Amino acid sequence: MTLFSTDHKVIGKQYIGLALFSVFLGMLLSLVMRFHLVHPDTKVRLFQMLWPEGAPGGQMTPELYLSLMTMHGTIMVFFVLTTAPQSGFGNYFLPLQIGAHDMAFPVLNMLSFWTTALSLGTLLLAFVVEGGAPLSGWTAYPPLSGLGKITGPGQGLGQDLWILSIALFCVASLMGAINIIVTVIELRAPGMGYFDMPLTCWGWFVTALISLFAFAVLLPGGVLLLLDRVAGTSFFIPGGLIVNDQVQGRSGGSPLLFQHLFWFFGHPEVYIAILPGMGVISTVLSVFSGKKVFGYKAMTVAMLAIGGLGFVVWGHHMFISGMSPYSSIAFSVLTMAVGVPSAVKTFNWLATLWGGRLRFTAAMHYALGFVSLFITGGITGLVLGQPGLDIYFHDTYFVVAHFHLIMGVAAVFAIWAALHYWFPKMYGRFLNERLGKIHFFLTFVGVYAVFVPLHFAGFVGNPRRYPDFKEYEFLKSVTGLHMGVTHAAYFLAAVQLIFLFNYFWSKRRGAVAPGNPWGATTREWTDD
Amino acid sequence: MAIAILIAALAGATLALFFQPRWWFPEAISAHARAYDAHFLVTLCVIGCIFVFAQGLLAWVIFRYRDRGQAVTGSDGNNTLEIAWTSATAVIFLGLALAGQGIWAGVHLEGSDPRALKVEVLAKQFAWSYRYAGADGAFGRVDVKQIDDAGGNSFGIDAKDPKGKDDLTAAVLRVPVGRPVELHLKSRDVIHNFFVRELRLKQDVVPGMTIPLRFTATKTGTYEVPCSELCGLGHHQMRSSLVVMTEEDYAAWLAEAQQKVVLP
Fold first, then answer.
1. Beta strands B173-176 and B239-245: pairing type?
2. Is the pLDDT of residue B264 over 70?
3. What is the pTM of this model?
4. Is A471 in contact with B43 (Cβ distance < 8 A)?
């Protein structure tokens, strides 16, 4: 396996490796945050060693907490949820499933992986530069992100590197999207029509289409933000600002413009993370029910509807942003509408199980867990999609709970299902089934224990992105809740060691797998 | 098998949490807040039913069709079913969307009340200030160059404008109970957010814009205002208060504060 291989299988594994590194890094950052939230005054020598500037004497500063939060979100959204399901598994299995020898543009494929790696390196560099990583969150709203150091430590070079990293990631994703789209259109085996493709391929295809349009908007958004910072332009900076007692000589820009550009990408991004997983779940449920997927056509139409409608709902992230309250009504109706194809998929999954003979492999466990989490996480979208109700929950822990369940945890369960299902194809060996199931059960309990209670912090009105809750009388009531969540998070993180062990151990020592171990009917198991 | 039980148990535990009284909305102190709570309850009942139905069905299907060597019987598609569940969810989801528009319209689509007490709200990293028009009912001009936080002129009220002579600024928002209030939200630097939990109101404060926010508080008391849009390293400490007073207390406070206005 050469480093700059143009083989889609190697590149797929490289993407999965990058995501595996990123997900554990992102998880460690979240553990540090969860610790600090419940022990805000505890000095930790390790923090001082890691971040001498951010944690003098081991006491974590608010700006360090916020920078960890920014990096956690950025790493998880871009380098895990966008990378593993689409670029990782898509690269490896799309050509195999449609009978192509490789992706349409192998060199471009290699370049997109290495651009992604460069993007990750650029992002991580922000940790060690002067001022540290940016504190403006993964959404990087200007003017906070647009004016440089004056708005806070980390808003200097750290924020520049963050923008550069995101721009590189956009370029990499655009290259990857073009590759997948062309591969699907041009390289399907003779006689294989679009509606003969497995749903996994539909997932990757629709996701590539979404990526093409979404990243093509985020990229210029990032470039304009960078220009505001380094070239003195005012795309997002209005006139008359006084920051830190200094008058800013800018005029004419609009902070809301950035939010429109960002969420035009940002909402479809949710579907970029989850659609490939939906394809995987459909396959796994079908194989281990011993049945075809129920309503294949409806499932493809639902994916296309999600992809299309996903582009006209971004305003639900901006109900309280100050944009026209009339547009909120339109965005609200469209948002509730995009919930319909998601519900249709859930019904079709249940109908796929109906009348089957269910084999409870580890992959099947994760797939069933996905469906449960998809329901739990998705259903609160019916609250947040209404501007009248969002007006209370916006930017509270209710939102944190919602998107972690639906976009984070559900998507990661799909990754686990995919890994357990396809590991035999990728490495010729099984992931250990028993360890897989133990890991599933502990993780499933863990994610419910972490994320369900956070909704209730939202009921209390607990704002997100607070490094501690000491300033407010009303937040005293959630101290115990956060303590419980933090301990559940420790537990959840600890049981991931089971997965890590299983992954590396099984690669070398796992039981040797036969050619088509699950009795599947798709081409990746039968061709070679 | 075990997973069916676990899904049912976790769904049950999730449901049970909704019946604890400890972590819930604070008291509602306006007609809007009470309408909010009522519509939220409707939404909660709807999604609660969907949740129980979907998780219950999932757990039951897993249990019912576990591998006992039975023959596979189910079908792989049925257009009538597809149409039925697509239209059913569409009706429920869009119905909720439409039913909820009333509370949104109540906050943002009703015009200005001429009787409303107008207060300007200024946010900056990391503090809030409030400006009242004073006895003449008119706000004085502002001039960026005259901003002086230490000297008590955060707004930069222009000393040359007679209308600004009686303008009153304060660090706490005081309003009389039962009277319509219209806030004009402004930011000096980055985006902040004005949030009063008891009013069920939240609004971003965006530099370069003046955003109105209207409410009528119906219960006296002191309510915390936490900044709810990430604004920098002091975001979590950017705290203010809303004090809802009786008309008499408010009048007394206003008279006293008015006397102390020191003109720049």
1. parallel
2. no
3. 0.97
4. no
